[in-house]
Amino acid sequence: MLRFAGLCLLLGLAACSTATSPVVQSPRQGTVQAAADRAARNFVTVVERVAPVAEQECRRRAPTTNCNYMILIDDRLDEPSNAFQTVDQTGRPMIIFTLALIAEVRNQDELAFVLGHEAAHHILGHLTQTAQNAQLGALVLGNLAAASGYSGAVVESAAALGAEVGARQFSKAFELEADALGAVITRRAGYDPVVGAAFFARIPDPGDEFLGTHPPNAERQATVQRVVAGQIP
Asked: In angstroms, rounded to a whole number, what is the distance separating the alpha carbons of residues 152 and 31?
């Protein structure tokens, strides 16, 4: 299911208006409007092609999981470029795109890869694993602080730190796993994941930061290239 909240903003208010009077635009406004129209149509086309493939892959790899994806648009204009996967109260997977990301991608391949990547996070159960790692980290450091004679706020702080460390412990590996499966989904939907992963070349590189949440961009692109070369099933 695709909710079109914010799509009128993406297409431009004039395009969604029911008024019959002509709209006069400057050349720059016309260029911006054309770019917005193209971005919106690309988004709809990609979702229509990739979402069914992601659902099929989900049912094949995780048959007990809710695979009924809902693709949403965060229509707040001040939100930075981002896409992420979460679940609603019933466990239904949601993939949310901001308008800035939809406008930033250069082609349908990039958008398809982002969608495939986020869908892969759900298939691979990364949200659940991250929550479990956070709980374990909180338990270990909290108990360690308590055993050392601390109490109250110190134990709470230790538990909070443990939760953060636990949540981040495997986050880089999860991102690479999602890149690999996302490349498979992208390719099966008829897009080029190598072209799609070129998106990484234009975003800030997190490097190899200790307890960072994302691996280096070059490593992510290399993972996708290995998938396409058949080196990762």
From this structure: 59
- Cα dihedral angle (128, 185, 73, 84), rounded to 10 degrees? 30
Distance, in Å, from the CA atom of 151 to the CA atom of 145, rounded to the nearest integer, reads: 8
Calpha distance 213→210 (Å, rounded) = 9
In the sheet that holds 83-87, the strands lie side by side as 70-74, 93-98, 83-87
Q: How far apart are CA 217 and CA 215, in angstroms?
A: 6
> Is pLDDT above 50 for 15?
no
CA angle 136, 139, 145 (to 5 degrees): 140
What is the Cα–Cα distance from 176 to 102, expressed in whole angstroms?
22
Q: How confident is the prediction for the chain on average, in pLDDT?
A: 79
DSSP H helices, the chain, are 7-11, 27-61, 99-104, 108-123, 126-147, 153-169, 171-188, 193-196, 217-228
Q: pLDDT higher for 24 or 30?
A: 30
Angle at 149 between CA 147 and CA 151, to 5 degrees: 100
Is 70:58 a contact under the CB 8 Å cutoff?
Answer: no
User: Taking the C-alpha atoms of 140, 142, 146 and 151 in order, what is their torsion angle to the nearest 10 degrees?
Assistant: 180
Q: Is the pLDDT of residue 211 over 70?
A: no
Distance in angstroms (rounded) separating the CA atoms of residues 187 and 112: 9
